[in-house]
Design a protein that fits this description.
Elements: E1 2-7, E2 10-16, H1 23-27, E3 33-34, E4 38-44, H2 47-65
């Protein structure tokens, strides 16, 4: 996951996934989309908060796929 602030409180999100995760599902709540292994979005908000939400979505998706893969 890469979150880059391109203007004050405007962030570009890039998601790459493997091991059963679907990158587009991670990006969709932020108005983005893409493919199973790569997706992206542009959204407004605090970069740290956006990254925290993205990380939690990944953890939740990993647990749904295979509980032994999550922390």
């Amino acid at each position: 996951i890469v979150v880059r602030e391109t203007a004050p409180h405007v962030c570009r999100i890039s998601v790459r996934a493997d091991k059963g995760l679907q990158a587009y599902k991670i990006a969709e709540p932020f108005g983005g989309g893409g493919h199973a292994s790569a997706a992206g979005a542009v959204t407004e908000g605090d970069p740290a908060e956006i990254r925290a939400v993205l990380e939690q979505r990944c953890i939740d998706d990993l647990q749904a796929c295979d509980p032994s893969q999550a922390q």
